[in-house]
Amino acid sequence: MAELAVATAVAKLTNLIIQEAILLNGVTEKVEQIRNELRWMQSFLKDADHAAEQDRNERFRNWVSQIREVAFDAEDVVETYLRGAAAASQSLWKKIVMPIHLHKVKRGVEKIQTRIDHISKQKDSFGIASMIASSREGGEGSISTNERLRWWRQPLPHIEEDDLIDLVQDTEALLTQLSSMEPRRRVVSIVGMGGLGKTTLAKKLYNHIELRHQFNCKAFVYVSQEYRRRETLRRIIKDVNVPYIGDLEEVDEEEMVKKLYEFLRGRKYLVVLDDVWEKEVWDSLEAAFPTSGMAGSKVMLTTRNREVALHADARSTPHEPRMLTEDESLELFRKKALPGMDHFPSDLENLGREMVTKCGGLPLALVVLGGLVSRKMKTREEWEHVLQNISWHLIDQDRVSAILALSYKDLPFYLKSCFLHLGLFPEDFSIPKTQLMRLWVAEGFLPQQGEDTAEGVAENCLNELINRCMIQVGTLTSLGRVKTISIHDLLRDFSLSVSRDENFLGIYTGGEVESSVSPSTKSRRIALHSNPTQHGFLHSPFLNPYAPHLRSLHFFNRFEHPELYFIKKDFKLLKVLDLKHTIGYTHTPSAIGILIQLRYLGVSQILKNCYIPPSIGNLKNLETLDLGSSYSPIPNVIWKMKRLRHLLLCDKSEPNCVNLRLDTLSHLQTLKTIRAGRWIEDGGLANMISLRRLGIERLSQERVNLVISILRRMCYLQSLSLEVMNNETFPTSMGLSRFQHLHKLCLKGKIEKLPHVCEFPPNLVKLSLIGSELQKDSIVQLERLPYLKMLVLGNQSYKWRELVSSSEGFPQLQVLHLVSLMELEEWTVEENAMMKLKHLKIEDCPRLKIPERLKLSNTVKILEVKYNPFKRWRSPEWTKASKNRLDCFKCFQD
Length: 894
Prior knowledge:
It contains 27 helices and 30 strands. By secondary structure, it is α/β, with parallel strands linked by helices.
């Protein structure tokens, strides 16, 4: 459907009317009129989305396509005008040029209005309005996609399913929760993405022999997105056999709730609510389930949204079943594809393994694929044909696509954009959270949420997609926060399928653009993927047809291009240019300066020998500039980018080449890692009042004191990294105790005397010390930091032979890294020291002997060791015992 394109256009035009009121003066009323017409079409499309699939004929699809195109063109007309008007407003010929731009946009807006009027008339002449009305009223033969889904998914709890894969650990964990005898009613939740097998697992538990006689009464009710309170209550009442309630069609809903409550109050009950989508469903039913009835009563929910589960019972931990392993996937696929056979024919097993890999352990996909293959001939040729078209078979099959689509359709439009955007990244790509959030901000996907920053809203959106099981947490930081995320292959394929229809993005893999309708497509985004084992080569003319409409361009997997000659004036609306994964560049052309709409520029992998042109100073709308490791001088033009929020660099050029001016960057939130210079004294640092993360290197002791005195006035600072020059030391007293919000601190350089514990930031969570040459008694001070969860003692930070971890020391420490402590040999860990330590990493500490107390600790779950004499203490007995208690054990021997 075109609803996403229209909703995006409406939101964007609304924001532009507010933010660019001056530049739009003279055409504001016409832009508002277009916005209002599109808003009306958006409402109409929501109704059209419920029309029966077979009623969506070719005329209907063409009509929807026209709406999408006019929404795109409305965006283009207004944004093109704003770009030209912004440039003209700075020109000496402003009085001549501005009327020309205004005349052009008026003509463009009038053409858009004419097209909208024509599309509106077609709605009646094509009979589209009557078709939608008929579907809404349930006309003859009208069967909606949701109705078919109800047929597919309506569970029959008394019927046991054959060919299941027994998830022993998941079953046991949930049985434990369901069998517990708390005095108050509890809610047990099963959470996961569509197709994970939540309903199947719930049915298995509902019929489990261990629970069969534990409950006086039971009910299993399918809720779904189309929740009907009366129908749900009626089903529960019928299943638990509430007597003397009369005709349920006549009884008031509140009376039904009251009768059900009274009946359950004296009984131990189990009620399963399958496929719950909204918190309001629980709110409307909760009163029917007594909280203080018989001990052990339970309500079990299955849902795709973790927030729904926590809303129903904040004390419970929602259970998310795992994906199937490769062997389990192969077994389930075999049972469905080869019914009655207990093994694969020898010539088909490898093909079967390749097929199930694409399913990513998702039971629904395996069942559908197995059912498809079961109807094919059992020949290698037939199976190879299925394998070659497996994405089509999985995503374009009604059942898989429709079930995945339920989660997508339930998203608000801004989350739909965020979700589809993930399709830009290559398959199985580990997506950095911070980079992703900055891209979403640059794309303008996010709504305003109170006083929260755009980055705060982006993190909220990311967490919501995680809670809705649309994306998966990849890796965590050492402190347990999300570091990377990933998306299941089938959800990615689904997103690309939707993006193809919406012209949201296209993927180029070296041959042609996937997910695009034609070379003249108005696709808003293009990601260029090449084979990871080969360098991809790109010819400039390829991008020309896409340039006028393109909003973002991404390169992945080491795409090779000798120069950035593809940058031309046609890329006038480009907002994101991400070149971090390219190679072979030796020159960044001055043409980069014509991309004045850029919000995000990432070039961190290509600048080792690259000239950075002063024309980047023209990028006045830039919000994120990632220059990475630059061996060329950075031109003194950064100050012109007054909207900059994140400046990421690592200046490797000769010292004192350029003294940067930075005193205009009041919106800057991230600055790392920058070399110390006159910009500190000249007001650059003092004016960065929005700083959250800061890293400065090559400081003198005098400048350290100056930096600290300036930063005391910054109330948002959360992370600070300071490095002193080789011949300098940190001041004895730095006065860090005033930094209430500082959670992370990194000090690189010699510390003659460690500050007293009361002089550290009071809420410090992570501390990294590198090259500190600490006094032997300094560890006693560190042990007393009350909230410290992670400590890194890096190269030459501690140069003594012995280290003692005192009893009751480091009360909150969870992560400890010891790196390149060459002199350290003996480490004594007293009883009750580091009682919460979970992750221990030891790297290049060749003389260190691991304390016996840590070898046997039950709290340490992750152990990483890297150095030669590791064999000295790794006895076979200890290694065997460790396997049973460590979640992760890594040994690297040089």
